[in-house]
Design brief:
Helices cover 66% and strands 0% of the residues. It has three helices and no strands. Helix 1 packs across helix 3. The longest helix has 35 residues. The chain is flat.
Length: 83
């Protein structure tokens, strides 16, 4: 089997990347900043904020994954109600 490139096709964005971006935006907003504001700040402050935002997003994404795993485990363990 060979893969063929599709011309003029938009790349598919990773759903996790979309969530990560949204969580980073939420963190920055909570701190009173937007991505545009970062362009006006000193580089060391931007680096600090982005490290914190990335850590926040990573932790939240792990929380989402853990909850999804728990729900799946509960669903898989549930015995069907048959009579």
């Amino acid at each position: 089997m060979t893969a063929k490139l599709i011309k003029d096709a938009d790349p598919i964005e990773d759903p996790n990347a979309v969530l990560e971006k949204a969580l980073i935006e939420a963190y920055l907003k909570e701190k009173g900043y937007t991505h545009d504001d970062l362009k006006k700040l000193p580089a060391d402050l931007v680096e600090k904020l982005m490290k914190e935002a990335s850590q926040y997003a990573s932790l939240k994404m792990e929380e989402v994954a853990a909850r999804a795993h728990l729900v799946k485990a509960l669903h898989d363990d549930a015995s069907p109600l048959e009579k």
